[in-house]
Design brief:
alpha/beta; 2 domains; two-stranded parallel ribbon; 5 helices
Length: about 160
């Protein structure tokens, strides 16, 4: 009888771990429930994520502070924004930044190697959904390495 109880308890624990793994951090929804249909995303977001002031008690206090004082900086290729390249915009953000900085990127083709250093937190890139910018770069991970790799080449093996 004892063995059967242990087996049931182990199964419940495994199910709970699996459920927790599928859930996004600090949320009560399953990642698989995020709608694929763009028209449904806004409604889903309002239901499960909601405004900052309704969930600020569940978030890291540093993040809450950063979100309350967000700053938007416009990048526009035509010169009508504060910057005309994404990298110039990123360079303008102070090291150790404590506020959310949203880089609003205007439409167009931006051919830049975009690099956001880890000592510049809270930077978000935003492109207007109806007129999305195209961000490209001609390099590869083989040439430049990956995140925090000190530019070591990527090793690829064939099976």
């Amino acid at each position: 009888m004892r063995l059967r109880e242990l087996s049931k308890k182990r199964k419940r624990n495994e199910e709970a771990k699996e459920k927790k793994r599928k859930c996004a951090p600090n949320t009560s929804f399953n990642i698989d429930e995020i709608p694929a249909n763009k028209e449904q995303v806004e409604s889903w977001f309002k239901t499960y994520v909601g405004p900052l002031n309704t969930r600020d008690k569940t978030l890291d206090p540093t993040l809450v502070t950063a979100e309350k004082a967000a700053k938007i900086i416009k990048v526009m290729q035509d010169g009508s924004g504060e910057f005309d390249t994404i990298n110039d915009d990123i360079k303008s953000v102070l090291i150790g930044n404590t506020k959310r900085v949203i880089l609003y990127i205007g439409s167009g083709n931006y051919k830049e190697k975009i690099k956001i250093e880890k000592d510049k937190p809270f930077i978000s890139l935003y492109g207007e959904p109806k007129n999305m910018p195209n961000l490209t770069f001609g390099g590869t991970t083989q040439q430049y390495g990956t995140v925090d790799s000190k530019h070591s080449p990527l090793s690829v093996t064939k099976n």
